[in-house]
Amino acid sequence: MTAGQPTVLVVEDEPAQREVLGYNLEAEGFRVAKAENGEEALLLVDEEQPDIIVLDWMLPNVSGIEVCRQLKTRSDTRNVPIIMLSARSEEVDRVRGLETGADDYVIKPYSVVELMARVRAQLRRARPAAAGLRLEFEDIVLDAETHRVTRDGQEIKLGPTEFRLLSTLMEKPGRVWSREQLLDRVWGRDIYVDTRTVDVHVGRLRKSLTATGGTDPLRTVRGAGYALG
Ligand code: CA
Question: Where does the Response regulatory domain lie (predicted)?
Fold first, then answer.
């Protein structure tokens, strides 16, 4: 069961570097997917839906720059942070890397400690609940580190699925999530669950959130899915 655990896609053609990166990211608690070239990276992005991508610039055939450019023009992948790795140190290349839409840029040889810090920083921005932060929406407070939820100061008890559901919704208030997207994010892609299960758990979450007398913060969007606020 890997739902809720952030996935990092490592794209690096040099096997030793790929393994070291994967090892260190797993030690940090991430789920790691690895690609050794640009084509494989693009396939794995669809299969694994990574939360962040560490992307080598110099790859055979489809370069890292091209992978980055493609992902940043697709509406479904545009918001996935990309950290580019490159042996190039010229300022002009750095600028070019950022112009393709990369969110950060690290020059080889890099310090693993520094790279991990940058991965965490990008993740805090893109997936605050997965990074263990405290999220707030109106009078609802979710502490991803202690797994506690309060509403208007009163503790709300949630099951593990409802907790993951609420953290997902609280990361992007106002965003409408389809049932399929919630299944992927909350239950994980490896598990077969019927989309009606989403409705059941949204119902339970609603009940818990309104138990202390507050209004229902969840919105059902007909034909589309659910949103918070
Ligand atoms: Ca390379």
Answer: 7-123
CA of 82 to the centre of ligand 1 (A): 16
The domain limits of the chain are 7-126, 134-228
Number of helices (H), then strands (E), belonging to the chain: the values are 8, 11
The answer to whether 134 touches 149, Cβ cutoff 8 Å, is: no
Residue 125 Cα to ligand 1 midpoint, Å, equals 27
Q: How far is the CA of 159 from the centre of ligand 1 (A)?
A: 44
pTM score of the predicted model: 0.71
Predicted confidence (pLDDT) at residue 2 exceeds the cutoff of 50: no
What's the CATH class of domain 7-126? Answer: alpha beta
Instruction: Measure 99 CA to ligand 1 centroid, in angstroms.
Output: 20
Q: What is the per-residue pLDDT across 27-63, written as a single tens digit (0 to 9) for each? A: 988 999 999 999 999 999 988 889 999 999 989 989 9
Cα–Cα–Cα angle for 38, 40, 43, rounded to 5 degrees: 110
Residue 223 Cα, ligand 1 centroid: separation in angstroms?
44
DSSP SS3 for 141: strand
DSSP string, 162-219: HHHHHHHHHHSTTPPBPHHHHIIIII-TTS---HHHHHHHHHHHHHHHHTTS----EE
Which residues lie below 8 Å from residue 226, measured CB to CB, with a gap of 6+?
A: 169, 176, 177, 179, 182, 198, 202, 218, 219, 220
* 134-228 under CATH 1.10.10.10, yes or no: yes
Give the Å distance between the CA of 104 and the centre of ligand 1. 17
